[in-house]
Each structure stands twice: as structure tokens, then as C-alpha cells.
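dude i think i finally got it to work??
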Amino acid sequence: MTETPDGSSGIISVDFQHILFLKCNTSESQSILVHTREGVYYIMGPLRYWVSALNSTGCHFSIINRGTAVNIDNVSRLDRAFRAAYFNLMNAPKSLTCTIALHRYRFVEKELLRINPNIIMS
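look at this
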């Protein structure tokens, strides 16, 4: 991963468990934004490739809409009314949110409940 879109900051290592979600970068078609509690990083390649690679290493990523995949292990709350996944951040006034596509919601909810039966549902 890099800290800059063009890679000029060099490559850094980020623990997979710290990744909250992956989101396709709309300003650069080839890159993906990697959101963590510490900040946002960049990787290159297709979203489905990274979800497959991360899940093959024991992670639990799920594609929730066309351009976003969440790390199921880091979802702190699921909102049924707004079809949204929330991630609590330490020392932050509010949490990060990802909207889940209508046709993917039930699958994501089932995955969350399987991995974390005590997840907060609202």
C-alpha cells in the first residue's frame, strides 16, 4: 500500500485486520482506497481481486455494492432502515459509514450475524 495515489511515498505495510473497507477510487479508475482507523491508503488493481486475495488469507471481506467491500470483522453496527454498515473510530466524534446495495443487504446481514452474533442491529 502507499500513502499517496501516485505511489511517491513508497510502499508501507498495513495489518489486514486494521482495514475497515475498500472503495474504488472514482478519480482514478485503477486504484482502490483502503480505509483504516489510522487513515486512507492506496492500492492498485480490481476490487474483486483484492477481496478474493484477502479472503484467501483468512479475512472476511464482503462486497456490499458495486465499488465497496467491507471487512465484516470490523463492522460495529448495522442499520436495517438505511442499509448501512458502521465502523467505530477511536477518538473520533462520529463513525464511518458504508451504504449496502439493496440486493446485497440480506447476504451481508447473514454474514455479520454468523461471524458476530452480538452485532448491534438498528
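The beta strands are 19-24, 31-36, 40-44, 61-65, 68-71, 77-79, 84-87, 96-99, 120-121.
im so relieved honestly
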